[in-house]
Design a protein that fits this description.
- The complex is a heterodimer of chains A (about 400) and B (about 100).
- By secondary structure, chain A is mostly beta strands.
- Chain A has 1 helix and 29 strands.
- In chain A, the strands form 8 sheets. Chain A has a 4-stranded antiparallel sheet, with no helix packed on it.
- The longest helix of chain A has 4 residues.
- Chain B is about 20% helix and about 20% strand.
- A 5-stranded mixed sheet of chain B has the order 2-1-5-3-4, covered by helices on one side.
- Chain B is globular and about 30 Å long.
- Classes of the chains: A mainly beta (about 400), B alpha+beta (about 100).
- Chains A and B meet through strand 6 of A and helix 1 of B.
Chain lengths: ~400, ~100
């Protein structure tokens, strides 16, 4: 029988939740790397037991953790061959994220716009998102703050920036959102290894068609009232983008305000907020088998980062947007004031698609019936930063 | 023999005990001690000093002999009591947050 493994990053460590295909009885392990912020964990599609995790701290900086046994044990990548990764001191320096400003492959380290409109130097702060290659367990991409994309081809030990994005030319017009100037979304095209998409708060969405050498902004159709030119080429606060891998190029976006879709790989976007109670939010995801079924969790506003009316509601559209239904069965419908952050929703690929999300209040909810009903897997974790799920044989 | 006391999270990370002892040749400076510490525990590179600038991370401070050495030159000699091992060098994380 198939299994699912849910990878949860929280403000105080990582947790791994496992269940069989019924998804009604769960084993919880953790906290792993206790006490640190785990911004994101994700498993390799090519080797499900290979997991990568972003361990970060305002005090001590950025580290990468790796598991080669499905999350039972963790180590910093790069422990020399022949040495047991754990126990014992790790020998690796897997935390070196340095912008590539070299003459051969890099771009000059310029400035971006600061909150007050002045220019500010690019400074590395943390890894927001890790995206393992679809085919090679040792290749993984990292989206970082201040916004840039890095790649490792040796299992997370050494990282090199794909500097064509930061050096794309519009950098001086990028600016940080409230959470920082983060590259938070990386989507790989399963049918075209040269193509990927990324998104940055607050710069917008970008696409490469040459394996990351060059990038172009893909924000036509986005309209953001909070910037001087609402239709600008860059400067939009994109919160998250999702894509069903069976239909590359059909993209769904939760922007700061507005839910959007594109049917041409991001070249053009149209609004699909429809009857949502508010179109502010962070997460968005797509049903594994129904590519026109999408999920969002509306948040009251950019000033009040909690669900509206004290009700935790997932909204589902089965028409690719515009027509939305509230999913409430099993979710608190009074006195609830949690947030759901941008990387904190995921879907599994079992026959009856499972949907998962985690909250700032430490709950992780599962729906084993595509959103019709929900149950908490855990209720009292530290605030949840990210949720990913692996469907295992 | 130089004694260094690490903050809790770096003890966990390095699998070191609360106090690390290091051999450092004279002159014993902050830079020399941190170089020796990072040579013994490579995973600590970047966690105390920035990888590129080698500057102290903003939320960390260095203390010894009841003095704040955080803003001293990294090439200044540490107090004799530290160089002799009588007193430890303390690396302390700012006490803030949840």
């Amino acid at each position: 029988m198939s299994k699912v493994r849910v990878l949860v990053g929280t403000r105080k460590g990582a947790f791994i939740l496992t269940a069989d295909g019924k998804r009604d009885k769960w084993d919880v392990s953790g906290p792993h790397v206790a006490g640190w912020e785990l911004y994101h964990l994700k498993g390799s599609p090519a080797d499900p037991n290979r997991l990568y995790a972003s361990q970060t701290s305002g005090w001590f900086g950025q580290l990468i953790q790796r598991s080669d046994d499905g999350g039972k044990t963790w180590h910093q990548p790069g422990t020399p061959p022949g040495e047991v990764p754990v126990p014992g001191p790790p020998k690796a320096v897997s935390n070196k994220f340095v912008y590539d400003a070299s003459g051969e492959t890099g771009k000059p380290l310029t400035t971006h716009q600061w909150y007050d409109g002045t220019q500010h130097p690019w400074e590395f702060k943390r890894v927001w998102h890790l995206e393992p290659s679809l085919t090679d367990p040792n290749t993984v991409y990292a989206g970082v703050e201040d916004a840039a994309i890095f790649r490792s081809t040796d299992g997370g030990e050494n990282w090199h920036e794909l500097s064509g994005l930061r050096g794309h030319g519009t950098g001086p017009r990028w600016q940080p959102g409230a959470g920082g100037m983060c590259l938070h979304t990386i989507i790989l095209d399963p049918k075209n290894p040269q193509r990927m998409w990324i998104a940055i708060s607050a710069a917008g969405a970008f696409r490469t068609d040459d394996g990351g050498k060059s990038w172009k902004p893909i924000n036509r159709g986005l309209r953001s009232q909070y910037i001087p030119d609402p239709n600008a080429e860059v400067g939009h606060c994109v919160h998250h983008i999702a894509m069903n891998p069976t239909r590359p190029g059909v993209m769904f976006m939760q922007k700061h305000w507005d839910v959007m879709r594109s049917d041409d790989a991001g070249d053009n976007w149209t609004e699909i907020s429809g009857n949502l109670p508010t179109d502010f939010g962070f997460v968005i995801d797509v049903h594994a088998h129904e590519p026109e079924t999408i999920y969002v969790v509306p948040i009251k506003s950019d000033g009040e980062h909690f669900v509206p009316d004290g009700k935790l509601r997932v909204f589902r559209s089965r028409t690719g947007g515009n027509e939305w239904e509230a999913l409430t069965k099993g979710l608190p419908q009074s006195n609830c004031y949690v947030n759901v952050l941008r990387d904190a929703m995921a879907v599994d690929s079992l026959d009856k698609c499972g949907v998962y999300f985690g909250t700032s209040g430490g709950q992780v909810y599962c729906s084993a019936d595509a959103g019709d009903s929900w149950n908490p897997i855990v209720r009292d974790l530290p605030g949840v930063l990210s949720v990913e799920v692996q469907t295992l044989p | 023999m130089i004694r260094v006391i690490l903050p809790q999270h770096l003890r966990t990370l390095s699998h070191a005990g609360s106090e690390v002892t290091l051999e450092v040749e004279s002159p014993v400076t902050l830079r020399a001690v941190l170089d020796a510490l990072e040579a013994r525990y490579p995973m600590l590179r970047g966690t105390i000093r920035d990888h590129v600038t080698q500057q102290r991370r903003p939320f960390l401070r260095f203390f010894a002999c009841e003095e704040d050495l955080s803003h001293e030159s990294p090439d200044a000699a540490l107090p004799d009591a530290v160089a002799s091992g009588k007193e430890p060098l303390l690396i302390i994380g700012a006490i803030a947050g949840g």
